[in-house]
Write a structure and sequence with these properties.
Four copies of one chain form a homotetramer. Chain A has nine helices and eleven strands. By secondary structure, chain A is an alpha/beta fold. In chain A, α1 (31-43) packs parallel to α2 (69-81), α4 (115-121) crosses α5 (138-150) and α8 (201-214) runs parallel beside α9 (240-253). Chains in contact: A-B, A-C, A-D, B-C, B-D, C-D. At the A-B interface, α6, α8 and α9 of A face α6, α8 and α9 of B.
């Protein structure tokens, strides 16, 4: 098992042997929506909450997130639940604004090579969840993490979320080899995002568990109260019942890989 | 869980809920070598034995297998161990010759599109293990299986062995999504080959177990008494001790996925 | 400019500085159809005729070619036009049967790794057009050519026909870099198939000419009298008027690359 | 031929039928170096000058460009040569600073999905050269261009520079199909960068010309007085003699595609 200096996300300490379960909707759509999801995933075992505020969408006509309106919602839900909050940042000019609300900055797949952003995040004292570029080589991903660490911020969590290949039956190809490879060769924590990696809620649970067995130190999972009505990516979000099934199986599985939740 | 008509490989019946463990060396290198591996993997739980006789090598200068000399070795080892035998066929003219020695024909990755071979195998009454082409779409793989079934042979086992992508840190990219996807959409048994999918014996065990959790109905694993001396692909073969570790963990894991060995 | 021993295809000698133009329908659909296409492409400058007899189709329900019925048609059209004939072989057992009718054996993309077939073609005294596997590395393609040459047959023509990538807007990604790379590093003639490489008749002409400038020594182009009615791949076949435009532009372009037709 | 509103880069007007030749070193290394290259490429027909100021390097230890020191150099060389200047921008906070020195902003391959940057460039009145992401689908590339145009800036030039595939013999796979496809379906000017697309100076000239025949409206070529001593990417830069050969052949070729330099 590889090693890393403990990382704090809100009240949670993430260190070797601990398993980090992050869940929440693709986007924050409103106060009640976010609070309901937050309360439910917390009850089922999630230790931190995810939710997009500024969505990075390929199509300029797609829903772009609530933007600054989401800041207050996120703060209120954090206060009510006591959970740490992770959200994606896409612009180096927003690092300061995000600082007041997030407990961990997420760098998305399309920004893995955004060195201006990575350098800025190297200067803060909060953790950075660095997703793999969908066409990033493992060695490029590690070098991207180095951009953050060079700035003085050692708290980098890697997140495998699927790569782009010739196969189109699933949204991406989930490269679990990459997780096992990194656990063998490097001292980074690595978590997995089965929601983007599969793009299909019915595949999320088996693939989430497969990632755990491959060596993942945590999961980042999209959960929504009504996936069919979600503003974005509803086809890959679990509903509460599906998330409960996932967490049940996860709890059975973790002892076999010598890890524990929280 | 998907369904399929029970498939016989030697004395073993492979049906939904059963887990098929196939192990053995990349190539049959000699009688004593093959018997030793066969006896050991059998003791540790393998139900069938693999071993290449005619090796399909990209480089014409590489070791091409013992060829017909391997037929007698395989027959003797089968008799002594009582295990079913699986070996790769690359030429439609050899279907008859193989019939006397194999209990299951293996079609390799580079022959997934070899329709002349697939049609010939559609006429026999022994099972066919059909590996995915390293660049085969899932739908092409299913169509290849249909070539066999059209001929009247319903006993097709699919085997995911990794696909070719831009990533070169591992030998292939193990597409476990494909296993979960096929289990959801089709009624074929699917097994996984973590040896080719990773190309690194240290990654074989975690990735083999990840494949099981993703839904694989079996494993095809390369095992050698001295991987460092193997005639081919030694870097990805498990030694006996590593295979024992794998089977130990596999036995712990199978109850969680409602399957049992044999 | 690289070098190779002159290759004979029917009455045509293909040697460095000569440009080889091969055209014809995807499939031989009947005597009159094939003769009409043959006469027309000959008039416009084609030196050899292509036409599928046994089609290698991914889907077992697709049109599989006229099979042996096409042998007589091909012989008659060869006799009437005097053109050399190239057709795809997919089964090592058919090498002898094909010998009477083809002037050049074509090995298709899905058979680049079919070593049983390649070895058999190494024994004949007619040229082999070896298409690149759609996921074949350049070095694997060269090794496949070596399988043929090891058998004693030096007459190998390579053919780039597009590779499989993440891009799906075009049928394949036409890897013209590969042509320039091979012309720099190896002594093989290389031709290009813009029909499969683009999958769109409107893109065939510019991409055919681009291949010539990249260094291609010839072209393999699909032409049909009524592409919209073709039994297979009609969307990528040129009609006679489009082929006339292509040959006009080709004749203007060849002097700039120091090559001449025929 | 597709259409677009004329685009001004310095004194040059780039409109349908004109061919845009941009050349220069990978990085600005110093005043004399940049002036010498600028003077030479101008003499040979280049209409605009490229040169990196802030280099986007995967490895944080690689040469990162002269940064702000390059601003003055670029201004001086522009004044002395009268050529337009194109340079890569990687950070939305630098749009204003660049405005004083560049005549066209270049968005590099790793920033095609950097929507914060694209939106900022949508507000300026200077053209944007938008390189294709090395794993960007054509449709994503067009949507990225739409991000710029939505902001009010219609002056977008697309640039194909090679995509990432399984083939590693060349640095990238030059997707010339994409150029022909865009010329058929969209009204954007498209230029080609054969330097990054091949990664080998010996392949640059044939592939540059192939791009022209495929439909490219211009070229972006790396040129250096001593490629073997270049601070970055010297293996793919042409020396002056090689660039002279390229421009000679280009001038012969352009009439065949109904275009003219300048």
């Amino acid at each position: 098992m590889n090693k890393w200096t403990p990382i704090s996300i809100g009240h949670v300490t993430f260190q070797p042997g601990n398993f980090l379960l992050v869940a929440g909707p693709c986007s924050i759509e409103g106060h009640d929506q976010f609070l309901e999801v937050g309360g439910e995933v917390q009850k089922l075992g999630a230790q931190a909450l995810r939710g997009g505020m500024f969505k990075l969408r390929t199509d300029p006509d797609s829903f772009q997130g609530l933007g600054r309106e989401a800041f207050n919602i996120a703060k209120q839900v954090k206060e009510k639940t006591g959970m740490g909050f992770i959200s994606e940042i896409t612009d180096p000019r927003q690092v300061g604004d995000f600082y007041d609300v997030v407990d961990c900055y997420q760098v998305g797949s399309r920004n893995m090579h955004n060195y201006a952003l990575l350098k800025e995040l190297g200067k803060v004292d909060k953790p950075v969840l660095l997703k793999r570029g969908f066409s990033g080589l493992i060695k490029e991903w590690i070098l991207a993490a180095d951009y953050v660490r060079r700035g003085g911020n050692e708290q980098v969590i890697l997140c495998e979320r699927g790569i782009r290949t010739f196969e189109t039956a699933t949204r991406n190809t989930f490269d679990l080899n990459a997780i096992a490879y990194i656990k063998k060769h490097y001292d980074f924590p690595v978590i997995a995002d089965p929601s983007h990696a599969t793009g299909d809620s019915e595949l999320v649970t088996p693939m989430a568990l497969a990632a755990v067995v491959a060596g993942a130190d945590g999961l980042l999972v999209e959960v929504h109260q009504k996936p069919e009505n979600a503003f974005s990516d509803g086809h890959q979000a679990l509903n509460f019942s599906q998330f409960a099934t996932l967490t049940d199986k996860l709890k059975q599985l973790l002892p076999l890989v010598d890890k524990q939740l929280g």
